[in-house]
Amino acid sequence: MEWIESRDLVPYEEALAAMEARVADISAGRAGEAVWLLEHPPLYTAGTSARAEDLVEPNRFPVYAAGRGGQYTYHGPGQRVAYVMLDLNRRGRDVRRFVGMLEDWVIATLAEFNVRGERREGRVGVWVVRPEKAPGPDGTPREDKIAAIGVKLRRWVSFHGISINVEPDLSHFEGIVPCGIREHGVTSLVDLGLPVTMGDLDVALKKTFGEVFGR
């Protein structure tokens, strides 16, 4: 299991090509599994379920067809992206379980900072309840999304993965309807009042990965 860390912003097309190559090498037995930690310059990605009307500002940032599941997602500085390239041939060929494990990983990582991340039925990703904000029109508590999940499999080797908001410019999410969900907002660790750095998050990600996926 290799951890790859990029300090500079990685162009999306470059990252996609590198993932494709690594996944092919894993499938062929030429390379081991890897998690790649990086940040992208500001951009939007469209998953396989993306709807045209959810791209609110098409000229704001570059838009890329991601090939992963899901809808529109924003990536940019201050957001930790973790591309997860794992061989599900030996970890169990169960896509639903794998996505659940990615959610478990995010939730365990957030718990390292005393943040309660939660799942929601019918909404992929991880959410944080915001009791300090005004409730929704129906009286339910306000919830903000703090992490997105989108994966693709090729010959049962995974790529793409998760993104966790550390300190991105949250106004950048206004150019899309994130993951097609209009009635909830987006938050970050710093927006929640936590002075968490990218390095802090990476330490937590590495610690909790083994707890969820094994070594």
Residue share in helix: 10-25%
- Radius of gyration equals 17 Å
Q: Roughly what fraction of the amino acids lie in strands?
A: 25-35%
- Whole-Å distance between the termini? 7 Å
Compute the average pLDDT.
93
Number of helices: 4
Structural class by sheet pairing and helices: alpha/beta
Q: What is the molecular shape?
A: globular
Ranges with pLDDT <50 over ≥5 residues? none
Order of helices and strands: EHEEEEEHHEEEEEH
Number of strands: 11
Largest sheet: 8 strands, mixed
3D architecture notes:
With 215 residues, the protein is of the alpha/beta class. It has helices spanning 12-27, 88-91, 95-111, 198-213, and strands spanning 2-5, 34-38, 43-46, 63-65, 72-75, 79-85, 118-120, 123-129, 143-154, 157-165, 185-186. Strand 1 (2-5), helix 1 and strand 2 form a beta-alpha-beta unit.
Descriptive terms for the model:
215 residues, alpha/beta, eight-stranded mixed sheet, three-stranded mixed sheet, 4 helices
List the helices and strands and how they pair.
Layout: E1 2-5, H1 12-27, E2 34-38, E3 43-46, E4 63-65, E5 72-75, E6 79-85, H2 88-91, H3 95-111, E7 118-120, E8 123-129, E9 143-154, E10 157-165, E11 185-186, H4 198-213
Parallel strand pairs: 1-2, 3-4, 9-11
Antiparallel strand pairs: 2-6, 3-5, 6-10, 7-8, 8-9, 9-10
Helix pairs in contact: 3-4
At a glance:
Helices cover 25% and strands 28% of the residues.
